[in-house]
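> example.struct
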């Protein structure tokens, strides 16, 4: 396959993963700034390990399914997912529902973390660790699903889609480490609209 043939898959995986990674980074930043970086990194590391196990456990099992059935199932899910993103982007663009606001999410997460009383166990704050774990795991599962979906169930496209998702994760991680603030300037509504059209 040429890069021209792979470009739509890589672009869709990159853009969808970018949105999900920004959301995970916001939660991790909230945990790190309020409760400390150790539980944020431990929770994130455990979530990434769980994602690796999940991908390696389910990936080969999915490839054992009949290709046409898998493509039909993934295609239907992708269509529904894309329509949901497109619908929300249109409603947000029209002002019917509020825009996704990373600053507001960050403030909400930090307020919740400040209220929670906890004692450390084994040198780690369990509430902070669980918050980081949950946020990264949920967004990571969405990224894994999106990689499979934009690859349309084709084993040949899963690698390029995964590279697009990895590039998005690295970009968001680099930006979050550099500025230590939520990535509120990422135009999530525009990205969701574009991805909805791509999907």
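> example.seq
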């Amino acid at each position: 396959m040429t890069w021209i043939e792979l470009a739509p898959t890589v672009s869709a995986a990159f853009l969808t993963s970018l949105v999900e990674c920004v959301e995970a980074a916001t939660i991790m930043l909230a945990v790190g700034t309020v409760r400390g970086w150790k539980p944020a990194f431990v929770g994130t590391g455990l979530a990434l390990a769980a994602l690796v196990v999940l991908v390696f456990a389910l990936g080969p099992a999915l490839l054992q399914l009949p290709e046409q059935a898998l493509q039909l199932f993934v295609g239907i899910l992708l269509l529904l997912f894309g329509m949901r993103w497109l619908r929300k982007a249109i409603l947000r663009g029209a002002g019917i529902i509020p825009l996704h606001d990373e600053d507001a999410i960050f403030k909400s997460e930090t307020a919740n973390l400040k209220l929670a009383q906890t004692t450390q166990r084994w040198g780690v704050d369990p509430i902070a660790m669980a918050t980081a774990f949950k946020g990264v795991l949920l967004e990571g599962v969405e990224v894994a699903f999106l990689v499979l979906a934009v690859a349309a169930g084709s084993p040949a496209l899963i690698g390029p889609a995964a590279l697009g998702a990895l590039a998005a994760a690295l970009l968001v991680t680099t930006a979050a480490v550099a500025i230590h603030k939520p990535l509120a300037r990422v135009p999530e509504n525009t990205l969701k609209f574009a991805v909805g059209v791509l999907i």
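> remarks
The radius of gyration is 18 Å.
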